[in-house]
Specification:
The complex is a heterodimer of chains A (328) and B (402). With 328 residues, chain A is α/β, with parallel strands linked by helices. Chain A is built from 10 helices and 10 strands. In chain A, the strands form 2 sheets. Chain A has an 8-stranded mixed sheet with strand order 4-3-5-6-8-7-9-10, with helices on both faces. A two-stranded antiparallel ribbon of chain A has the order 1-2. Chain A starts with 13 loop residues before the first strand and ends in a 5-residue tail after the last helix. Chain B folds into 2 domains: 240 residues, Rossmann fold, CATH 3.40.50.970; 140 residues, Rossmann fold (3-Layer(aba) Sandwich). Chain B contains 14 helices and 14 strands. In chain B, the strands form 3 sheets. Chain B has a 6-stranded mixed sheet with strand order 8-10-9-12-13-14, with helices on both faces. In chain B, α12 links the parallel β12 and β13. In chain B, α1 crosses α2 and α3 packs parallel to α5. The longest helix of chain B is centred in the middle third of the chain and has 33 residues. The termini of chain B are far apart. Classes of the chains: A alpha/beta (328), B alpha/beta (402). The interface between A and B is large, with 48 and 44 residues.
C-alpha cells in the first residue's frame, strides 16, 4: 500500500506515512545482511526468509532472546549466523528473558555503568509452539508491563523442530504427527488455529502486525512503523515449512503468496488497536488452490474428497473477510 | 530484632542489588514486600518487577545477571519447583545470581511448614547452597554469597536457604553492618565473561550438538563448584576480618571431643544443640555437626570432623522416597573409603515442620551408643512419637478412615 504523504527525493524509493519513512519497492530493502549464510535450517525455510528481512529492518544493535524451537539451532556452539547478541532461554520464558535484559540495560545506563551508545533493542524470537501455547503466561506478563521489545513469531503452524506435531497454531484439517487422518478422524486436526493477533490485541499493546516472507516491502515498512512505538511490538510471520507442510523446497515463496492471495493469511497491522489490512487481494483465489499443493492437506482431496472440511475452511476465510467488510 | 525474612532483605539492601524480579509465595513473601517498600521509599536504588511465575522470575533474574547487573530473587517450595527448568539453565549461563529459598515441604499433600526436599531437589543444578541456622547468618550469608558467586574462579549462582516459619518468622537480635563496610567487602559487580552491549556482540547460552561440547561445559561447572571450596575459605576469612563473625563450611558444636555426633542443617540444629547439652549432662560425649555449605559439598572438612568418632547420626529433614535421607547418602559416600569411619545411622525427622522432641533426640543418641557397641547401624528410622501416632489416628477417625 502506498503511503499518504509526500514522496521524498530519494529516487522514488521512499515515501512518508505519518512521518515514518517507508519503502515502495524491493529496491528500498536495506542491502545489509544480518543473518549470514550457512545455518542448519531446512532448505526452503520460510521462517528463515522472514527472519532475514526482519533483521535487515532491525539492524545489528539488538539482542535476540530465543525460545526453544527450530531457530534455537541457528546458534550452535561455536557458530552463530548473527552479527548481534543472542541468549537462548527455554521454551516458556523468552519474554521474561527479554524483561531481564531490558531492565538490566536500563538500570546500568541509569547508574552510569553502561554508555547509552551501548544500548540494544531486545527482540524475542520464537516459533508458534512457544508463542501460541507454552509461553502465553510470560508473554501476557511482558505485554501487560508494556515491556519495550520486539516479538517475532515464525509461525509454521506446528511443533516443527520435534518433527511436526499439532500446536495451537495448527489450522483445522491439517495432518501432523499427532493429528493423523484416520477412519475415526478423517480430517486430521479437529481444532481451529488460535488467533494470536487477537490474544495480543486484548492486552492493548502499541503495535501488532502479521507479516509474510513473500511480502518483504510490507514487512520492512511494518518494522519502520513499529520502531516509533515504545512497548511490545508483535510480528507474526506465516512461514511455509517444506518438511512440515509437504511442499517442495522451491515452493516456499509461492505458498506464502498463495496464503495471502486466498485470504488464509491476512496481512494487517494494528496501531494502538486501530486495525488496518495492509495487503488485500483484488480478487481472492479459492482456498483450495492453497490447500491442494500441500501434503498436509492431501487427505482432503484423496482418496475421497472431504467436502465438508473443505467448505468449513473456505467459510472460515469468507467469514473473516466479511467481518472486516473487505470481501469483494 | 529482625525476622529471618527481614534479615534476608537487609542482606539484599546492603549488597546494593540492581535488579529484583519476584513472585509471591509463602513463607518468603515478607522478603519481597520489605524490599518493595524500601524501593518505593527510595532508600534502595533497584528495579523491582513482579513476574508472571517463578519460571519467568528466574529467567528475568538470570538474564539480567547475564546482562551485567547484580540480581536477586527469592522463592519457596512449589515456586522453586515451578522454576526448576531455569535453575539448570541459569547455572549453565554461569551468572552469579543470589537466590533465597525459604524452605517449605512439597505438595502433595500441600503444606506450609518446612523441610528440605525443595532446596535439596536443586542440589544437582549447579547452584551453590548455603544453609542457615540464625537470622544473623541469613544476612551475613547473602553478602558472602555474592562474593563467592561473583568470584571469577566460581561464577555460579547460589542459594541461601532458611527454614520457613521457624526462621523466616522468628525474630532474633541481628547486627546490621554499615554499608561502607559492606562495599569494602563486596565491590561492584563488573563481569568480564557475560554481558550485553552494542560494541561487543555476544552469543550466550548457545546450543551444542553432541556430548563433546556438552560434557566440556558440564565439567567446567563441576570444577568451578569445586574451586568454590577454596574460594569460600578466603571469603570466610575476609568476612571474619571485616565483620567479626566466622562461618565455616561446617559448624561444630561440642564436636572436638565428642564420641557421638548428630548431623543436622538449618534452624532445627538449635534443637539438636539443646539435645547435645542434655546428653552431656547425662555424661555422654555428644556433639553436633551442622552442615552449612551443601554445594559444593565440603568433603574434606566433613571427613576431618567425623573420622574416628564412634557414631554419627544423620538427621535428614527430607526424604528421598524409596531410598531415605539424602544427606545420609551423601555423607556415607564421603566416608566409605575412610579406614576409621564411624558407624553411620540414618533418621528421617521434622518433615513438614514436625517437631523433633527431646525424647526423640535421646532415642537417637541412645541408638548411637548401642549401635557403636554392637557395630550395627540398623536401618533408617522414620521418627514418629506415640503421641503423634495417636493424634493422627484421631484425624483419620474424623476423616472416616479410622
Amino acid at each position: 500500500m502506498a503511503g499518504n504523504g509526500a514522496i521524498e527525493g530519494d529516487g522514488g524509493k521512499g515515501v512518508k506515512d505519518m512521518g515514518v519513512e517507508r519503502i515502495k519497492s524491493i529496491k528500498g530493502i536495506p542491502p545489509e545482511e544480518n543473518v549470514l549464510p550457512g545455518t542448519p535450517a531446512c532448505a526452503g525455510c520460510g521462517g528463515l526468509l522472514a527472519l532475514r528481512h526482519c533483521m535487515k529492518a532491525l539492524g545489528q544493535k539488538i539482542v535476540i532472546v530465543n525460545a526453544a524451537g527450530c531457530f534455537t539451532l541457528l546458534t550452535i556452539y561455536p557458530y552463530t549466523p548473527f552479527k548481534n547478541s543472542w541468549l537462548y532461554t527455554a521454551m516458556a520464558c523468552a519474554p521474561a528473558g527479554a524483561q531481564g535484559i531490558r531492565d538490566a540495560l536500563d538500570i546500568l545506563i541509569k547508574k552510569g555503568r553502561l554508555d547509552p551508545d551501548e544500548d540494544l533493542k531486545v527482540v524475542v524470537l520464537t516459533g508458534d509452539g512457544a508463542a501460541y501455547d507454552m509461553s502465553l503466561s510470560s508473554t501476557s506478563g511482558a505485554i501487560n508491563r508494556n515491556l519495550d521489545f520486539y516479538y517475532i513469531c515464525y509461525d509454521n503452524e506446528a511443533y516443527g523442530n520435534t518433527g511436526v506435531q499439532w500446536s495451537g497454531a495448527t489450522p483445522f484439517a491439517s495432518k501432523t504427527g499427532t493429528t493423523p487422518p484416520g477412519m475415526i478422524r478423517p480430517m486430521g486436526a479437529e481444532l481451529v488455529k488460535k488467533d494470536l493477533f487477537a490474544i495480543w490485541g486484548s492486552h492493548k499493546p502499541p503495535y501488532l502486525a502479521t507479516i509474510s516472507p513473500a511480502h518483504p516491502v510490507d514487512l520492512i515498512n511494518k518494522f519502520k512503523k513499529a520502531e516509533q512505538y515504545n512497548g511490545p511490538k508483535l510480528f507474526i510471520a506465516l512461514s511455509p515449512c517444506p518438511p512440515g507442510w509437504g511442499i517442495d523446497t522451491s515452493y516456499t515463496v509461492k505458498l506464502a503468496k498463495l496464503a495471502v492471495d486466498t485470504g488464509v493469511w491476512a496481512l494487517k497491522e494494528a496501531v494502538s488497536g486501530d486495525l488496518k489490512h495492509t495487503v488485500v487481494p483484488k480478487r481472492f483465489k479459492p482456498v483450495e488452490e492453497y490447500l491442494q499443493v500441500q501434503g498436509r492437506f492431501a487427505h482432503l482431496f484423496k482418496p475421497v474428497r472431504q467436502e465438508a472440511a473443505l467448505n468449513k475452511i473456505q467459510e472460515g476465510v469468507n467469514e473473516y473477510w466479511n467481518r472486516h467488510k473487505l470481501l469483494l | 530484632m529482625l525476622t529471618g525474612n527481614a534479615a534476608a532483605a537487609w542482606g539484599v539492601r546492603l549488597a546494593e542489588v540492581d535488579y529484583i524480579p519476584i513472585y509471591p509465595i509463602t513463607p518468603q513473601t515478607e522478603i519481597i514486600e520489605t524490599l518493595a517498600g524500601w524501593i518505593s521509599n527510595g532508600v534502595m536504588d533497584s528495579r523491582f518487577v513482579t513476574m508472571d511465575s517463578e519460571h519467568s522470575m528466574l529467567t528475568a533474574a538470570g538474564s539480567a545477571s547475564a546482562t551485567g547487573a547484580r540480581a536477586f530473587t527469592a522463592t519457596s517450595s512449589q515456586g522453586l519447583l515451578y522454576g526448576f527448568e531455569m535453575l539448570y539453565a541459569v547455572a549453565g549461563w554461569r551468572v552469579p545470581l543470589v537466590m533465597v529459598n525459604v524452605s517449605r515441604g512439597l505438595s502433595s499433600p500441600i503444606t506450609l511448614e518446612p523441610d528440605h526436599n525443595d532446596v535439596l531437589a536443586a542440589r544437582d543444578t549447579g547452584f551453590l547452597q548455603i544453609h542457615c541456622e540464625t537470622c544473623q547468618e541469613v544476612l551475613d550469608s547473602i553478602l558472602m554469597a555474592y562474593r563467592l558467586a561473583e568470584d571469577e574462579r566460581v561464577l555460579l549462582p547460589i542459594f541461601v536457604n532458611l527454614d520457613g516459619f521457624y526462621l523466616s518468622f522468628t525474630r532474633e537480635p541481628v547486627e546490621v553492618p554499615d554499608v561502607e563496610q559492606v562495599r569494602n567487602f563486596l565491590p561492584l559487580y563488573q563481569p568480564k565473561h557475560a554481558f550485553f552491549k552494542a560494541s561487543q556482540p555476544m552469543a550466550q547460552s548457545a546450543a551444542v550438538l553432541g556430548g563433546l561440547a556438552y560434557s566440556y561445559f558440564k565439567y567446567q561447572m563441576h570444577m568451578a563448584s569445586q574451586n568454590a571450596l577454596a574460594v569460600y575459605k578466603e571469603v570466610c576469612d575476609e568476612f571474619e576480618t571485616g565483620f567479626g563473625r566466622n562461618y565455616d563450611t561446617i559448624e561444630g558444636y561440642m564436636l572436638d571431643d565428642a564420641d557421638y555426633v548428630l548431623v543436622m542443617t538449618n534452624s532445627f540444629s538449635t534443637l539438636g544443640k539443646a539435645a547435645v547439652n542434655a546428653a552431656r549432662e547425662r555424661g555422654l560425649k555428644a556433639g553436633l555437626l551442622r552442615l552449612r555449605l551443601l554445594r559444593p559439598f565440603p568433603v574434606t572438612d566433613l571427613k576431618a570432623a567425623v573420622t574416628g568418632k564412634k557414631a554419627v547420626a544423620v538427621i535428614d529433614q527430607n526424604i528421598s522416597i524409596g531410598k531415605g535421607g539424602i544427606l545420609h547418602s551423601e555423607i556415607a559416600s564421603c566416608l566409605y573409603h575412610e579406614k576409621h569411619r564411624p558407624l553411620l545411622l540414618s533418621f528421617i525427622a521434622g518433615l513438614g515442620g514436625k517437631n523433633i522432641s527431646p525424647d526423640e533426640f535421646e532415642f537417637i543418641i541412645n541408638k548411637m551408643v548401642t549401635g557403636a557397641d554392637t557395630e550395627d547401624a540398623g536401618t533408617a528410622q522414620l521418627l514418629y512419637t506415640d503421641t503423634e501416632w495417636q493424634e493422627m489416628g484421631r484425624l483419620k477417625g474424623m476423616a472416616g478412615k479410622g
